[in-house]
Design goal:
single chain; 279 residues; alpha+beta; OB fold (Dihydrolipoamide Acetyltransferase, E2P); 2 domains; five-stranded mixed β-barrel; 5 strands; 48% helix
């Protein structure tokens, strides 16, 4: 994914260009899919099993679940249909930007819960410093021109917003095994590596935890590597290879960085500022 800051800046540009009045709903929708990422980090920090956390929350990053998330927020206010369309438009901007993001052999399950194939164009790496720098250049005129006022009033029946949340919870609980069975983000391999002997495998966001022997940690599981080139301890990598004799014979390595996470923190703080500031 691009960083959260860029996910906010892009819809702000749209709001300025098309004079969208309730732009706070638009930017809320634009960060809504990454609520899953925030929850994963939080639960992993609390010590929950990383893989179980992933398969539970990953569907929240899909168009389908975000229909209900958007509806839940829209029902908090008067004119829920109009609000829903604005929020979900923000969601669409997020998902489109994410399609361009480098995801290795993986991607996004755009047709969940009907189809679990992952899609990604692998054009831009989100850790590239170029992305947030371009975003900041766009942001300066955006803030200057963003003069439209929000007109949001709470609905007297705001409690209806709980209904979509219940529906979401049902789907999150009922589809956990489906994500594993379809090896979404390599989860089936991570749980059952013995099923992938002599097969091509991939790991997306692995941490190098040992150099001798060479080992990775992916979602709390440890994997041994066979790789001739030097890796740095604690580096975060994406790999492809073949699983043989309890080792992954690595064919390619991509080195990740933490740039997008730093800018995502900035983006989250910036979002909170925009939401609470007076028009």
């Amino acid at each position: 994914m691009p960083d959260l800051l860029f996910h906010i800046i892009f819809p702000l540009l749209i709001a300025v260009s098309f004079k969208i009045k309730n732009w706070k709903l638009l930017i809320t929708g634009a960060i809504l899919p990454d609520l899953s990422r925030i929850l994963m980090i939080f639960f992993n920090y609390l010590g929950f099993d990383q893989l179980k956390t992933f398969v539970f929350f990953e569907p929240m990053h899909t168009p389908f679940i975000n229909i209900f998330l958007s509806l839940s927020i829209a029902l908090l206010f008067i004119n829920p249909i109009k609000n829903f369309l604005i929020i979900y438009f923000g969601v669409v901007t997020h998902l489109i930007l994410d399609l361009f993001q480098y995801a290795g052999s993986f991607g996004h399950i755009l047709f969940y819960p009907f189809y679990y194939k992952e899609y990604a164009l692998n054009i831009i790496y989100g850790g590239n410093i170029f992305i947030p720098l371009v975003g900041l250049l766009i942001l300066i005129p955006d803030l200057f021109l963003l003069k439209e006022k929000n007109s949001l009033n709470f609905s007297k029946k705001f409690y209806y917003s709980l209904i979509p949340l219940v529906i979401i919870l049902i789907f999150l609980i009922s589809t956990r095994n489906s994500l594993i069975e379809n090896n979404v983000h390599g989860t089936n391999f991570i749980l059952n590596p013995e099923l992938y002997i002599n097969h091509e495998v991939s790991l997306y966001n692995s941490k190098v935890i040992s150099l001798n022997p060479l080992q990775l940690d992916e979602m709390g599981r440890i994997f041994n590597l066979k790789y001739d080139k030097k890796l740095e301890l604690n580096s975060i990598i994406t790999i492809d290879g073949v699983y043989k004799e309890n080792k992954i014979e690595v064919s390619s390595v991509f080195f990740n960085n933490l740039n997008k996470y730093y800018f995502s923190i900035i983006g989250l703080l910036f979002y909170l500022y925009l939401i609470i500031k007076k028009d």
